[in-house]
Amino acid sequence: MKLALAAGIVSAISMSLLVVCAIQLTRGVAIVRLLNPIFPGYNVSWQGAGLGLVYGFVACFIYAGVLASVYNWSLGFKGIKIKAKAKAKPAKKKRR
Predict the structure, then answer these.
(1) What is the pLDDT of residue 43?
(2) Long-range contacts: 1-6, Cβ < 8 Å, 24+?
(3) Whole domain around residue 41: which residue ranges?
(4) Domain count, the chain
(5) What's residue 12's pLDDT?
(6) Does the predicted model carry a pTM greater than 0.85?
(7) Is 76 exposed, middle or buried (0-12, 13-18, 19+ CB in 10 A)?
(8) Is residue 92 domain-resident?
(9) Does residue 91 form part of some domain?
(10) What one-character-per-residue DSSP string does 39-81 give?
(11) Regions in the chain scoring below 70 on pLDDT
(12) What does the pLDDT read at residue 23?
């Protein structure tokens, strides 16, 4: 869940920034137009930047969640155990 959330946030910000760069710097317009058939309404406009936030988060959240689930399942299938936390050894007392 944490991986999916982090990937969704990064993807949402990057898709939104791509549109903002296309508006302000006129760079990346071709990439935004290329993604328009995949994500309806995602175009070079401020509305497209808002939709980029939503589309980027949802799409990448789902893909990363599925990928993490498959990875965790494959670790369980192979019998590999991952320790959640390393156990600390108790400190030895000094003798006087």
Answers:
(1) 87
(2) 1/65, 1/68, 3/64, 3/65, 3/67, 3/68, 4/60, 4/61, 4/62, 4/64, 4/65, 4/68, 5/61, 6/64
(3) 2-78
(4) 1
(5) 92
(6) no
(7) exposed
(8) no
(9) no
(10) STT-SSSHHHHHHHHHHHHHHHHHHHHHHHHHHHHHHHHHT--
(11) 77-90, 95-96
(12) 87
Evaluate whether 46 touches 23 at the Cβ level (below 8 Å): yes
What is the number of other CB atoms lying within 10 angstroms of the CB of residue 42? 24
Q: Which residue has the tokens 């369980």?
A: 76
What DSSP designation does 87 have?
A: P
pLDDT at residue 79, rounded to an integer: 60
pLDDT of residue 88: 66
Sign of CA dihedral 56, 58, 64, 70: negative
Amino acid at the residue 84: A
